[in-house]
Amino acid sequence: MMTGDSISESESTAVGRVYLVGSGPGDPELMTVKAKRLLESADVILHDKLPGPEILNQLPDEACEDVGKRAGGERTTQEYTNQRMVELAREGKTVARLKGGDPFVFGRGGEEAEYLAAHGVPFEVVPGVSSAVAGPAVAGIPLTHRDHASSVSFVTGHEDPTKDDSAVDWAALAATGGTIVVLMGVGKLPEYTGALLDAGMAPGTPVALVERATWPTQQIACGTLDTAVDARDRAGIEPPAITVVGAVAATRERVREFLANGSTGQNREDDR
User: Fold this and answer.
1) What is the mean predicted confidence (pLDDT) over 110-126?
2) What is the pTM of this model?
């Protein structure tokens, strides 16, 4: 086991390989065949909680290391995870770094890839179905629609807190139009809906929130830009969840009666 923050420079004769694996949104059937195969054969699986309970419960306990949040608010630092991947690979291990969704969509996969490359560790990226796409889809919301949206903007609602200023230009997004998908932004919903309203976006712009898309506990709440916070609170929407802003969010109302996969779990609705 690694001690401190340093990485030993001694390497085994055969350096292992790290796989940055996207697990998809949480439904085990939405994992790729390759991801499933790698999880079954990996020596060590470094995972957090975002892959979802159904996927995590299927993993072999003896191979798993939890590098996510723990009880009491404790969490594994990104620095430790980076170092642990290198340490295990230098021991000749095959490592699956399991992430929710897609590893390169707000999943720090890019940071981890750079770290591995800087330390001479071979790696491979295994894409997954991102919740940015899956969340709206299971709710019956198309991100693009010939009548409503010809562009999509993906935005994080949880930027690095050490940054001096936000890199998200909400005014520009409001002016661009199309569909806006916010990941990890439930807690800051008042801030960015307010920013969009201040930028001139219509108060009646449809908004949908999808919590734990494809999980057994999936929930969906719908409202408008000026009622989204109330809709969130009435439905009890909590992280992890995605927010869809734009005309396409209103299409759910026209299809939900016939939408089987959008009505699973504790699906609760807020009418506009």
Assistant:
1) 98
2) 0.85
